Amino acid sequence: MIEILSPTEITRARETGALVADILQALKGRAAVGTNLLDINRWAGEMIIEAGATSCYIDYEPSFGRGPFGHYICTAVNDAVLHGLPHDYTLADGDLLTLDLAVIKGGVAADSAISFLVGDAKPLESITMIDATERALYAGIAVAGPGARIGDISHAIGSVLSEAGYPINTQFGGHGIGSTMHQDPHVPNTGRQGRGYTLRPGLLLALEPWVMADTAELVTDPDGWTLRSATGCLTAHSEHTIAITDDGAEILTLPTKAVQ
């Protein structure tokens, strides 16, 4: 299903997007050496409930997972990159942490992910990888607009990731979003220009470049959810929800508050 949202729904999407972004920034500010992933999940739940919103993950039960997910947020550390199930793990100095959050408020969902380093250690490999996913994300956003094709976005994202030297997995990528978290169209993280669905004003897309340092192969943890690099290498993931407008694309998941 591909949804085209009304102007009123887009206004609600802006509110949801800002909420997602602000929660992620608040959690980033609280994630420190010694923080447990279960605490991050608890904090996320408290902020979501206080805002009158609902996590898209609590009842999330796709065919590829061992559902329902049953937690408020995805937390992925180091070699974990997608659908990281919060568990009893204490963050260490230099850990590369990805937080992926999707919520629904006012009947409209928004989805965003950030990767960042915990503590004082700043390994160059981690910084370089996070930077590549962020640059790829903004390259995809830059070409999104009415009349563009999904392949244009995929090509822009893939060009940045490939030039940075990262293999690209196309099993999981960006997606449409609206009244539910995951909708058509699928937005692969590499592709050919001029191909695929033509973008229209009112379409919401969650774009999410993610990479693994030396492989494109994923393995699934025994928890049935957490996806890791097959080689144990580092990973990173960046994501924004955007709205296609009459003259381009608007990023909906930008924070309105400074990190607490």
UniProtKB/TrEMBL annotation:
Q: Which cofactor does it need?
A: Co(2+); Zn(2+); Mn(2+); Fe(2+)
Task: Give the organism, scientific name.
Answer: Pseudarthrobacter siccitolerans
Q: Which residues cross the membrane?
A: none
Q: Cofactor stoichiometry and binding?
A: Binds 2 divalent metal cations per subunit. Has a high-affinity and a low affinity metal-binding site. The true nature of the physiological cofactor is under debate. The enzyme is active with cobalt, zinc, manganese or divalent iron ions. Most likely, methionine aminopeptidases function as mononuclear Fe(2+)-metalloproteases under physiological conditions, and the catalytically relevant metal-binding site has been assigned to the histidine-containing high-affinity site.
Positions contributing to a divalent metal cation 1 binding = 100, 111, 239
Question: What is the official name of this protein in its record?
Answer: Methionine aminopeptidase
Q: What Pfam families does the entry give?
A: Peptidase_M24
Q: Which reaction does it catalyse?
A: Release of N-terminal amino acids, preferentially methionine, from peptides and arylamides
Q: What does this protein do?
A: Removes the N-terminal methionine from nascent proteins. The N-terminal methionine is often cleaved when the second residue in the primary sequence is small and uncharged (Met-Ala-, Cys, Gly, Pro, Ser, Thr, or Val). Requires deformylation of the N(alpha)-formylated initiator methionine before it can be hydrolyzed.
Residues reported to bind a divalent metal cation 2: 111, 175, 208, 239
Family as reported in the entry's similarity comment: Belongs to the peptidase M24A family. Methionine aminopeptidase type 1 subfamily.
Checking InterPro entries in the record gives: Creatinase/aminopeptidase-like, Pept_M24, Pept_M24_MAP, Pept_M24A_MAP1
Q: Which GO terms describe its biological process?
A: proteolysis
Assembly with partners or alone: Monomer.
The EC class name is hydrolase
- List keywords of the entry alphabetically: Aminopeptidase, Hydrolase, Metal-binding, Protease
Nucleus keyword on record: no
